[in-house]
Amino acid sequence: MRRYLFVLFSVFTFHICIAQQKPQYTQYVFNNLLINPAVTGIENYVDVKTGYRSQWTGLEGAPVTSYLTASVPFGSDFVGGDAAALSGGNDANPYSRLFSQTYEASTPHHGLGFMVISDQAGPISTTNVDLTYAYHLGISSDFNLSLGVEAGANHISLNTSMLTLENPLDPAIANGNNSQWKPDLGIGIWGYSGNYYFGVSALQLLTQNQYFSTNNSTTQAKTVPQLFITGGVKIFLNDDVTLLPSALVKFISPLPVTYDINAKIAFKDRFWVGAAYRNGDAIAGMVGLNISSLINIGYSYDYTTSALRTVSNGTHEIVINLMLNNRDHQVAPPHGF
Asked: Does pTM top 0.70 for this prediction?
């Protein structure tokens, strides 16, 4: 019965409201490329991240999201430069006060990247495949501005074997196209310095009708542009401990405005702990470990605060970061928050 109710809810939401709402992430700040293409190439190494999110565990058919992203900078002065020398002298800890005080804007450079995001919710599966590009320009001695674009395709499919329908010939899915590819496009802007950042992005710009039936009398859903505004800052509590608050606001018509508020405390450049709040949905605890100059890892657990808390055991999310060709041996990402 629980499975049937969730599937019924998923199909109703899909056909009456919005198809293709972007997946949400508790650790968005660990991989801002997911919400803004202008982040592409922000670090002077090959930045590879993979993540897995199991939402509302215990509820059969609940969303499960996984992704792989990669970002590569181009520009000999930037890639071959010494990040430690330009940003913090001998103290390579990007969470330190010295790093921010001596931070210098990076030289103009390009970034190329890609992302593959898979999201499964009940009988509906979506996969986004996008290429990303960004150009980073130093506006002042310690501030960069980047512009980015992402373009690719989105695949959506309906597994009818998971549906239990009163009418097997339901016009909402009968004689329809249960596997569709649609183009995808997004743009973004990102401003950053040694101790703060902000970004604005508009994703899913190409409005697309989404339907599984050829019957024109059925209600058709459609994708809509989604606007993301985010920002964060470093607050130095002492030489070894830094507070990293950040926020994300999402505008997705006709849904209400939603927002995430995060706060992390970093202990040098070795590990961090944090908490998050998403209005009307969940509160979360987070922890991360910077294992070496090659690999970092983050984990979060969301406690559901919505009505789904009666059938949900919460949400688990894990993110793994590989810093390839990390010539400066940074243990934590220089532009991480």
From this structure: yes
